[in-house]
Write a structure and sequence with these properties.
By secondary structure, the protein is α+β, with helices and mostly antiparallel strands. About 35% of the residues lie in helices and about 20% in strands.
Length: about 450
């Protein structure tokens, strides 16, 4: 058994009927070199012997009574891999639009909290003789970096496959703890909270006072400073998705020419697309769009660890700047400034998350969603833009070559568009997920 961290539990608490908090990936494979059919048996043969390399896949939640403390992960005594593997066919002709529509529909379905929080859908009938696999894993279990590690661990480096190393210890299921045991453990943990809170407060103050803050024209935008737009409002239960791939060498050439980061180029690409899109809609923006950009704070020593080691920063997308090259440099300056002004730091934010009451957070999130409070204030940010480095080498599943891997990040009440990109070999795979009532056709 393992108690969720405050940050991991926060993704559970933020979940509402209209805002599932799982992350997903739409992987497209070429099975032309595979003997026989690439079917659900292939998926089981790939994942079953590697379950020890993906610890969240056999863990399920056990909620503390009354929401007094963060839930527990337990090794599920009723684990059944067959329940997590499903099969469906995409409507003809199985092109990118049909595949995206089906993936968005499946991704809108929340995960069952009585089971380990993941599922995979094998999608037949994709154009070009391809097949696709939609994987869904709750954000409470993984972030972008740990999810990428699971992807690499559960696939092969060659079409011939490789020998799967055995687990260091045999897997054993947990005995489900009683309510009384969970309450006793939670009470003991909560009794130590005042002392821990004093230590966290001291570290937070030291970090804030120890960081010099100089005035700058590229200062990060404050929360609730983003302009009101048509994509910022309450969510429905529906989702839409669009995917595309761009050349990674071309992006790196732009990066080198302008002396910026790859992430700056990604942000500038998204900013330019949004600027044109709002112009085409005839929608005037009262100020530059603001992106929430997740930032991995996973250290070398934390590689292989599951859960979330992520923070975030707000970045102006400089959409008021007409020249794309100038906009790129403005964004580059803004991201550097945002990183330097991460004054409190991810460790302190993680510490404070430990003290959040799950029951209170959950009720607040559901109330915010049900009362459509996102309509009553300026957006905290306009759009989520995430860039996840992926493997630079080819990957295979049961002999089928991975062609593309489109990420699908969650959207939030008040911010109905997520633009996530993952690199793979020589390409950048973009997944744009949104709410159709706010976004229309992405």
């Amino acid at each position: 058994m393992q108690r969720l961290t405050g940050l991991d539990a926060g993704f559970l608490s933020m979940e509402t009927p209209t805002a599932p908090m799982h992350v997903a990936g739409l992987a497209v494979f070429d099975p032309s070199e595979v003997e026989g059919l690439f079917d659900i048996d292939h998926l089981r043969e790939v994942y079953e012997p590697r379950l020890h390399m993906a610890p969240p896949f056999r863990r399920r939640l056990r909620e503390v009574p009354f929401g007094l403390h963060h839930p527990l992960w337990i090794e599920d005594p009723d684990f059944d891999i067959e329940w997590h593997l499903r099969r469906v066919a995409v409507p003809a002709p199985g092109g990118p639009r049909e595949l995206a529509e089906l993936a968005a529909h499946l991704n809108a379905i929340p995960l069952d909290r009585s089971r380990p929080l993941w599922e995979m859908w094998l999608i037949d009938g994709v154009a070009g003789g391809h097949v696709a696999v939609l994987s869904k894993v709750h954000h409470a279990a993984i972030d972008g970096a740990s999810g990428n590690e699971i992807t690499v661990a559960t696939l092969d480096l060659s079409p011939e496959g490789s020998e799967v190393p055995p687990p260091e210890e045999a897997w054993t299921p947990d005995t489900i703890p009683s309510d009384a045991e969970m309450l006793a453990h939670a009470t003991a943990s909560l009794l130590s909270s005042p002392l821990r809170m004093m230590k966290v407060t001291r570290r937070t103050i030291d970090a804030a006072l120890g960081r010099r803050r100089l005035p700058s024209s590229s200062s990060p935008p404050a929360p609730f400073a983003a302009p009101r737009t048509s994509i910022n409002g309450p969510l429905t239960r529906q989702r839409v998705l669009a995917t595309t791939s761009l050349s990674l060498p071309a992006v790196k050439a732009i990066k080198a020419h302008h002396d910026v980061k790859v992430n700056d180029v990604v942000l500038a690409l998204c900013a330019g697309a949004l600027r044109r899109w709002f112009d085409d809609r005839g929608e005037d923006l009262s100020g530059p769009l603001v992106a929430m950009v997740p930032v991995s704070v996973r250290t070398e020593g934390e590689k292989g660890a599951m859960g979330n080691r992520v923070s975030s920063m707000l970045v102006s997308l400089a959409t008021e700047v007409s020249d794309p090259a100038v906009r790129l440099h403005v964004i580059g300056d803004a991201t550097r400034e945002a990183k330097e002004r991460h004054a409190i730091g991810a460790d302190a934010l993680t510490d404070w998350a430990e003290f959040a009451a799950p029951a209170l957070l959950g009720r607040a999130a559901r109330l915010y969603s049900r009362m459509h409070l996102a309509n009553m204030h300026r957006p905290v940010f306009n759009v989520t833009i995430s860039n996840v480095p992926g493997p630079p080498f080819p990957l295979y599943s049961a002999g089928a070559r991975l062609v593309a891997n489109y990420p699908m990040g969650p959207i939030f009440d008040g911010a109905g568009l997520n633009m996530t990109v993952m690199s793979y070999r020589e390409q950048l795979d973009f997944g744009l997920q949104g709410d159709p009532e706010l976004l229309g056709d992405p």
